[in-house]
Amino acid sequence: MHKILFFLISIFSFQVALSQVELTWADFADVNFEAQYNQEYDTHFLMPTFGQKIMGYHGKEVSITGYFLDISGTGEVLLLSSNPMASCFFCGAAGPESIIEVVFNEIPPFITDQVVKVTGTLQLNGDNVDRCNYILKNATGKLIN
């Protein structure tokens, strides 16, 4: 009986490990941008064309490690970045592929520039200029440092 239980637990653990993928920031660089005019805002925005590799993760549970950013200061706009706040996308040091909008199940007590690992369902956003190109929904996080 113990052998059967051990076997079933092992199989379940293996399936859970396979269902979650650990991505790197290089994976998120699988995108090209082209300036397109947006009539609503009367300006041009860099709009993404996602590569096949990153498109394969759309709708899947993934994890990535990066710098936590609360750019609103109130917990309304939470991001994960490949760079700390002083050299993030908004400060001109990187591109839009270096940030991920995070929608947590419960807002964690992280502070800006802490290194965290976030797990959630990846959504690719190619048309809503009010959101990031990459969004992790139903996310949870773990403090790394």
The CATH superfamily title: Protein of unknown function (DUF3299)
User: What is the count of distinct domains?
Assistant: 1
Strand content: 35-45%
Q: Kindly, what is the distance between the CA atoms of the first and last residues, rounded to a whole number of angstroms? A: 42 Å
Mean pLDDT: 87
Question: Strands of the largest sheet, in order across it?
Answer: 4-5-6-8-7
Instruction: Sketch the topology as an H/E string, one letter per element.
Output: HEHEEHEEEEE
Spans of at least 5 consecutive residues with low confidence: 2-18
Just give the CATH class: Mainly Beta
CATH architecture assignment? Beta Barrel
Q: Find the count of extended strands (DSSP E, 2+ residues).
A: 8
Largest pleated sheet: 5 strands, mixed, barrel
Signal peptide: 1-19
Keywords: Signal
Protein name: DUF3299 domain-containing protein
Organism: Croceivirga thetidis
Task: Please name the defining characteristics of this protein.
145 residues; alpha+beta; OB fold (Dihydrolipoamide Acetyltransferase, E2P); five-stranded mixed beta barrel; two-stranded antiparallel ribbon; 3 helices; globular; disordered N terminus
